[in-house]
Design a protein that fits this description.
Blueprint: H1 5-15, H2 17-27, E1 33-38, E2 42-47, E3 52-61, E4 64-73, H3 81-90, H4 101-111, H5 116-133, H6 135-147, H7 151-158, H8 161-171, E5 192-195, H9 214-226, H10 232-247, H11 251-264, H12 273-286, H13 293-304, H14 306-318, H15 323-329, H16 356-372, H17 381-399, H18 404-415, H19 435-440
Antiparallel strand pairs: 1-2, 2-3, 3-4, 4-5
Helix pairs in contact: 3-4, 5-6, 6-17, 8-18, 10-11, 16-17
Length: about 450
């Protein structure tokens, strides 16, 4: 069976087209990596800084991409015969000597030395399109440029003992999944993971550590949700929803605005009616609205609608929540009046041993970065991105609970200061090809 490399590549790419696009988008959040190709259990990546290719093992589960075992791909003299033979044997079910992914990679190396610049350019162009097409990725990259203006301040902060300790804890936290890649360290011995929902929270709302009781963990989440009215980011989304309702005479559009808000904040379903109404009332009052009854009535109608009930039921099924367990989740006191939440419930996260003074130092630095963005206007995506980090740190300081993913994002963001210094444009561009470039490859 004769199969050309192009045909073979089409077979690989088309069978995983959606997954390939998702992984390419996640890799595009980095400052130095671009996705070249994907096999069943291998990725081929480009280091944009050195113009070298790497292969890596990968796992994609629950919207989280994990890469490990990076190995440099050294391109040699162009020879297509080995790849053609390997592909033919790969699809020959009667062949007694199985062809491995490593054999296919060898064929890839042998065939494409003289075409490496094309592959190089295609990978960079693909990454550029992903960045241009995703406002969240553009915001993250612009925020990094603003960050790099404060390299000296960041370097001084990272020398603080508490930041060194926090960095070490982040490196050893398997469940700390960042919402974006920074600089990919090709020689790392640690797995590199990223949530492929760019900039979004990890898919699992409730993360259990050590021997934490499931119900206690969910109670802790419910308590944190009850304080969302204090969050500027939450109030901004709430205000945006109210604005859309006021501006339309369409019942359907108003319903969509509320459903979209609930979809972005599904954890609100953990609150019983009284706690939910209290949160909505407080948030409404914080926005300067004196009459909260109409807003409460809108939520009551939407929550009781078919779409609202379906959204709630789907969420409950995902976390195996029943009405009985919901009562327990919303019960924060035992029969003796003591809290049912263990005293150490909030002390097991990565940032659990940070004191208020340390958190304030980190917040102060992010505020400097935020202030530098005001020239382009508050409310830009990059300004909101930094604001969300500040709000997360404030929430951690106020409630004593933290998300490992947030701490991972904070440490990675600061540790990679200076990563954009060679990038003179707002968007990544494919490097120009030249004889010298091909000679180096």
């Amino acid at each position: 069976m004769q199969v050309s490399y192009n045909k073979f590549k089409q077979l690989v790419d088309s069978s995983n087209e959606k997954l390939f696009d998702k992984i390419a988008e996640a890799v595009a959040t980095s400052d130095n990596a671009a996705l070249v190709a994907m096999f069943d259990d291998k990725l081929v990546l480009l280091d944009e800084k050195t113009k070298e290719f790497y292969k890596a093992d990968y796992v994609y589960e629950n919207k989280v991409l994990t890469m490990h075992n990076f190995e440099n791909v050294e391109l040699k003299e162009n020879d297509g015969a080995y790849l053609e033979e390997a592909v033919e044997r790969y699809f020959d079910l009667d062949d007694k000597t199985p062809i491995t992914t490593r054999d296919l990679m060898t064929g890839f190396k042998l065939k494409f030395k003289n075409e490496s610049s094309t592959i190089f350019t295609e990978a960079c162009d693909r990454k550029s399109k992903k960045v241009i097409g995703n406002p969240r990725i553009r915001a993250i990259k612009k925020a990094r440029k603003a960050r790099d203006m404060f390299k000296e301040d960041i370097d001084n902060l990272m020398e603080e003992p508490f930041m060194k300790h926090l960095t070490l804890k982040v490196q050893n936290a398997d469940d700390a999944i960042p919402t974006a890649l920074n600089n990919v360290a090709w020689n790392t011995t640690y797995p590199i993971s990223v949530n492929t929902d760019i900039g979004g929270p990890a898919d699992e709302l409730i993360t259990l550590r050590d021997n934490t009781n499931v119900m206690d963990a969910m109670k802790g989440v419910a308590l944190k949700i009850s304080d969302k009215w204090k969050s500027d980011a939450f109030r901004a989304k709430f205000s945006d929803m109210i604005g859309k309702i006021v501006q339309t005479e369409s019942v359907e559009l108003a319903q969509t605005a509320v459903l979209n808000f609930l979809d972005e904040n599904k954890e609100l379903f953990l609150l019983k009616d009284n706690a939910f109404n209290e949160l909505i009332t407080k948030t409404t009052l914080m926005l300067g609205e004196g009459n909260t009854d109409p807003v409460l009535q809108i939520f009551e109608n939407i929550m009781g609608s078919k779409k609202g009930r379906q959204m709630k039921n789907t969420y409950f099924q995902k976390y195996n929540i029943t009405e009985e367990s919901l009562d327990q989740i919303n019960s924060t006191e035992g029969e003796d009046g003591e809290s049912n939440i263990p005293a150490d419930q909030t002390t097991k996260g990565i940032g659990s041993d940070l004191d208020d003074e340390s958190v304030d130092k980190v917040i102060s630095l992010f505020k400097k970065i935020q202030d530098a963005m005001k020239d382009k206007g508050e409310g830009t995506p990059e300004y909101d991105y930094i604001s969300s980090i500040i709000e997360s740190l404030k929430s951690f300081k106020e409630s004593g609970t933290d998300s490992d993913s947030v701490m991972k994002d904070v440490v990675d963001f600061l540790n990679n200061v200076g990563s954009t210094k060679d990038d003179g444009s707002d968007e990544p561009m494919a490097p120009a090809t030249s004889d010298e470039t091909e000679g180096n490859i």
